[in-house]
Design brief:
Helix content: 40-55%
Radius of gyration: 12 Å
Order of helices and strands: HHHEE
Number of domains: 1
Structural class: alpha+beta
Shape: globular
Strand content: 15-25%
CATH class: Mainly Alpha
Largest sheet: 2 strands, antiparallel
CATH architecture: Orthogonal Bundle
CATH topology: Arc Repressor Mutant, subunit A
Low-confidence stretches: none
Number of helices: 3
Distance between the termini: 26 Å
């Protein structure tokens, strides 16, 4: 999916969070988190939560990992990730 393919902030946030969780290294993770934080700043807390839940479900469906994470209003994200 290209950047221009996103129709909503939620789609873009979901992709940013997904890329952060599945990033192959710390640098890529930080790039994705920066993107996700910027996008989340344009969304309500309820919209953010819906995007996070969608990413959690996608990862569980892909059987990659069990994931939990939180993003506070300052844009800080805390991940709890367990690989299957």
């Amino acid at each position: 999916m290209k950047e221009s393919d996103f129709q909503t902030y939620r789609e873009a946030l979901e992709m940013g969070l997904y890329l952060a969780v599945t990033a192959p290294d710390e640098e890529k993770k930080e790039e994705a988190l920066s993107m996700a934080k910027l996008i989340a700043s344009c969304m309500t807390p309820e919209e953010e939560e819906a995007a996070k839940l969608a990413v959690e479900q996608r990862l569980e469906e892909e059987n990659q990992c069990t994931l939990a994470f939180r993003m506070d209003h300052a844009g800080r994200i805390t991940f709890i990730k367990e690989s299957n």
